[in-house]
Amino acid sequence: KIVASSADKNFSYLPDCSDLGIPDNADYVYICENETINGTAYHTLPNTKGKVLVADQSSLFLSRPCDVSKYGLIWAGVQKNVGPAGMSIVIIREDLIREDLPEFVPTYLRYKTHADADSLYNTPNCWSIYCCGKVFQNLLANGGLEAMAQRNEEKAAVLYGFLDRSKFFTAAVRKEDRSYMNVPFVSPSKEQDAEVAASAKAAGFDNLKGHKSVGGLRASIYNAMPKEGVEALVDFLKKYEAEHT
């Protein structure tokens, strides 16, 4: 059951989640905390009215501090901010690790299977775990998640600041709901979007084309992207704008 949506404005904002019409028989409330395609992010968690909150944090995991006590379950694919694709991290409240699941749930898909085996029920993805460990050590050695959040906010401000001042490019998301990880924007036309993406690639800025389902342009600036990289992109966009207006 969808209890809130921003489909009316092409998912360019997050709806008010302070008083959701959550059914009494709901088992949980699910959110994608950072939505990569449209570039929205929850900066305030929804009021779940006592129901368990389940969040997909794949695209913002480790990008900022997180009070895990507010969730029943967090899951995240590691491929955005943590390590090589092919592994997921789950943080689950202990009372939700249950035995009384329907018989159709396979052994491997039961969280209790992995909890009882210390996440070693099967041969784990050792390479990904090793790489993730290196990332954890690097984060801890450089100020932790508080420092990472500050770096992400600063570099996102560079790009959003340019877009808000630009007469040529337009940010796609309402200010208060913008993602610090994924920044979608558009030029005056679809044809111009394609030209910008092609020119950017020729200049060394790859993958600026927006997701195929929405078009436009999109800059993904995950943890590994330094502020200098964002500044270089803004310099390119400024030059492009000056040459085409």
Task: Walk me through what this model shows.
- The protein folds into two domains: 7-141, Aspartate Aminotransferase, domain 2, CATH 3.40.640.10; 145-243, Aspartate Aminotransferase, domain 1.
- Helices cover 30% and strands 14% of the residues.
- The chain has helices at residues 111-116, 126-141, 144-165, 190-202, 227-243, and strands spanning 28-32, 34-35, 40-41, 52-56, 73-77, 88-92, 170-171, 182-186, 217-220.
- The strands form three sheets. A four-stranded mixed β-sheet has the order 1-4-5-6, with no helix packed on it.
- Strand 2 and strand 3 form a beta hairpin.
- The mean pLDDT is 96.
Protein topology:
Blueprint: E1 28-32, E2 34-35, E3 40-41, E4 52-56, E5 73-77, E6 88-92, H1 111-116, H2 126-141, H3 144-165, E7 170-171, E8 182-186, H4 190-202, E9 217-220, H5 227-243
Parallel strand pairs: 1-4, 4-5
Antiparallel strand pairs: 2-3, 5-6, 7-8, 8-9
